[in-house]
Amino acid sequence: MKFVIEHLENEVYEWCLIEYENMSKFVGKENLIFTKTKSSKLKKFGKVEPKSVIDLNLNRACLLDPKAKKTLSPSDVDNFDYFIFGGILGDFPEQGRTEKYLTSKLKNVETRNLGSIQMSTDTAVIVAKMILDGKNFNDIKFIDSPNIPIKNGKYAEEVNLPYRYISKNNKPLISPKLIKYLKNKDSV
């Protein structure tokens, strides 16, 4: 099974690179395809395809869209070879860009959701991989909108990530590189 990320940002921002590297670690470089980009930075994380997924005519493909009626299930591993995700840095509140840029244009592709709460792209890919490996969506524990401490001391600061993350040991499963990025960024 291949995980296809349609890169929908104007450039490959550092945040994107961190998420793309994280998903590559979970699903394997050989199973990851980045479409609609020519960025050589992504070649170490997966295959890079300059064409849009819309133009690739993938057979047995499933698009993950939060607005889809059906939830991805372990049995979908037998129905599809490609699982398509929008590589979009999240907006809050969600603006339905997956539907606008992908679902509306991929008319012959089935859709599935991963629940109704927006996830980071790497979390969505990791959750899909867990489901396709046999875990039911309802058996996965999540943390919604975690606060990430970015500065300790007299005036502690934290940043809220208004997305859903996998819960591991009662903490959100977030790339350590992203945490470091947030702590070192002047303004998030």
Strand-residue proportion: 15-25%
What is the CATH class designation of the largest domain? Alpha Beta
CATH topology of the largest domain: Alpha/beta knot
Whole-number radius of gyration? 16 Å
What is the H-and-E element order?
A: EHEEEEHEHEEEEEH
Total beta-strand segments: 11
Pick out its properties:
single chain; 188 residues; alpha/beta; Alpha/beta knot; 2 domains; 6-stranded parallel beta sheet; 3-stranded antiparallel beta sheet; 11 strands; 24% strand; globular
Report on the structure:
Helix content is 22%, strand content 24%. The chain is of the alpha/beta class. It has 2 domains: 2-135, Alpha/beta knot, CATH 3.40.1280.10; 143-184, no CATH class. It has a 6-stranded parallel sheet. A 3-stranded antiparallel sheet has the order 7-10-11, with no helix packed on it. It has a two-stranded antiparallel ribbon with strand order 8-9. The protein is globular and about 55 Å long.
